[in-house]
């Protein structure tokens, strides 16, 4: 039995929960430390991660401290998923997993993040900036929907970290589109994406994290 | 001698040139096909990459077609850098390389890209959006500068794909800040970053790509 990994997290931030889903899937023991936004960009937390963001993990079993959710997920499967249940060791599949993980990191996360920013936090209302990012969110659905045509999962015939990495930003949709979320008509406009997302949401690890996140949001700043 | 890899590229886009630097470093033969922006989001190119962007590679030696610059770079070192000159096979170093590559993909590329967008291409001038991304660019310098304190390279004591992946977006600075580029006072404000960037720019692979990009910009749309 390995010692629990420490996961530095935030109640509402999607990226730490992305890591938590993988920990749950792999049944790797972990404890969560919630960090307030105000404490992220100064020591002692900034000493762990010069980028001043969560997630960060500390793994007492290997001594590593690591940040960037994409790199943490790769570390977790390479260290704890010894039978490759959530990834592939063969080529070309393992490179396709990397491709989709990088698309999630560079194409979904940042654009969904900017959509949240201009919808909820920017100092003034900028309709054309908001529209830019709402359109980018729809473009991500379009790309995923096209890639999933005739397929259950993004790579091969099993659920991998590539699929699972998209879940927690997708949970932010109501936060981005508010009352207009329904008008996206996801099932009609992006049927492959919609069915895939449903398959992901039905996994017990994902269900547990959705519940944990809701509970954490109620008690942490 | 391996058959040349086909690299789909664009004259001004930073991401294909990031891949070209690694191909040059590894002395892997390749040919470049330039794609116009207008042709990226429709077949036949969209069939290669549902995300409708460059870079994409086709490698006749393995039969793989791959997109996302971060994934392509990982593929290239794992396939062609058999003595790990530009990466590490040992832990924790290989995970730190992954961490910085993911930071480049999610933290530098997208934010520098939005800074370019709101400075050069957005339909209206939005000073507060422009300021947001100019500040984010400076924050990336701050993070790199802090991480490079007392160090020559981001991971261990050699130049890796982690370092090299930052070069081509850094070349966009004059495009983002225009006449104000000098007022960033990079050498004074981010001395570790400045010295590191200079070391990178002195590498022969980087010099060649800077020259190739300048020449391509003169003849391709």
Automatic annotation (TrEMBL), chains A, B:
Q: Could you tell me the EC number(s) of this protein?
A: 2.5.1.18
Q: What broad class of enzyme is this?
A: transferase
Ranges where the GST N-terminal domain occurs: 3-84
Q: Which UniProt keywords apply?
A: Transferase
Could you tell me what reaction this enzyme catalyses? Answer: RX + glutathione = an S-substituted glutathione + a halide anion + H(+)
The protein's matches in InterPro entries, at most eight in alphabetical order, are given as: Glutathione-S-Trfase_C-like, Glutathione-S-Trfase_C_sf, Glutathione_S-Trfase, Glutathione_S-Trfase_N, GST_C, Thioredoxin-like_sf
What range(s) does the GST C-terminal domain occupy?
A: 90-219
| One Pfam short name | GST_N_2
Keyword hit for Isomerase: no
Query: Coiled-coil annotation: which residues?
Result: none
Alphabetized GO MF terms: glutathione transferase activity
What are the annotated GO cellular component locations?
cytoplasm; nucleus
| Record function comment | Involved in the oxidative stress response and detoxification.
Family as reported in the entry's similarity comment: Belongs to the GST superfamily.
The protein, known as: glutathione transferase
Gene it is expressed from: OpS6
């Amino acid at each position: 039995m390995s010692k629990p990994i420490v996961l530095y997290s935030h109640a509402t931030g999607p990226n730490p929960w992305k890591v938590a889903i993988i920990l749950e899937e792999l049944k790797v023991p972990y404890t969560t430390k919630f960090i307030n936004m105000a404490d992220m960009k100064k020591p002692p937390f900034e000493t762990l991660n010069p980028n001043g963001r969560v997630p960060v993990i500390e793994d007492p079993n290997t001594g590593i401290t690591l940040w960037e959710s994409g790199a943490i997920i790769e570390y977790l499967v390479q260290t704890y998923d010894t039978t490759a249940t959530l990834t592939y060791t063969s080529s070309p599949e393992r490179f396709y997993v990397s491709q989709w993980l990088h698309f999630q990191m560079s194409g979904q996360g940042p654009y969904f993040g900017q959509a949240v920013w201009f919808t909820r936090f920017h100092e003034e209302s900028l309709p054309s900036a908001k529209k830019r990012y709402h359109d980018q969110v729809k473009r991500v659905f379009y790309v995923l929907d096209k890639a999933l045509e005739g397929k259950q999962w993004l790579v091969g015939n099993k659920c991998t970290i590539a699929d699972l990495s998209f879940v927690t930003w997708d949970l932010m949709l109501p936060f981005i589109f508010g009352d207009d979320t329904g008008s996206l008509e996801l099932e009609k406009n992006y049927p492959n994406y919609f069915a895939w997302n449903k398959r992901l949401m039905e996994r017990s690890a994902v269900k547990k994290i959705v519940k944990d996140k809701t509970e954490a949001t109620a008690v942490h700043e």
